[in-house]
Amino acid sequence: GINLSGKPKDIVTTELQVQLRRRSDSTTIWEGRAATEAKQGTPAAQPGLAAQKLAAALIGGYPGESGRTITVK
After folding, report:
1. What is the DSSP string of 23-46?
2. Angle at CA 58, nearest 5°, toward 10 and 65?
3. How far apart are CA 43 and CA 30, in angstroms?
4. Spatial CB neighbours of 15, under 8 Å, sequence gap ≥ 6
5. Structural domain boundaries of the chain?
6. C-alpha radius of gyration, the chain, whole number
7. For 2-9, which contacts have Cβ atoms below 8 Å and span 24 or more sequence positions?
């Protein structure tokens, strides 16, 4: 068949990492990471929207279970 849909859109990955450290000795007391992927040109690929979604997912379950990975849709 002939593909009339054009070139597939690139995937944009946005990541957010947070690390809380004790001021007195710089010991890490909590850290978390979140990532999202979206097709380039879609609203979900916009940095501001992606950052809001990632921050809500990351902080929403604070402090959470150590080492646990969650998926947010």
Report:
1. TTT--EEEEEEEEEEEETTSGGGS
2. 125
3. 31
4. 33, 34, 35, 54
5. 11-60
6. 17
7. 9/39, 9/40, 9/41, 9/42
- Return d(Cα 68, Cα 64) in angstroms, integer: 8
What one-letter code names the amino acid at 39? Answer: K
Instruction: Single out the residue of 44, 37, 35 nearest to residue 12, CA to CA.
Output: 37
Cβ atoms of 11 and 37 closer than 8 Å = yes
Per-residue pLDDT of the chain (73 residues; tens, 9 = 90+): 677 777 878 999 999 988 899 999 999 998 888 889 999 999 999 999 999 999 998 888 788 777 777 777 6
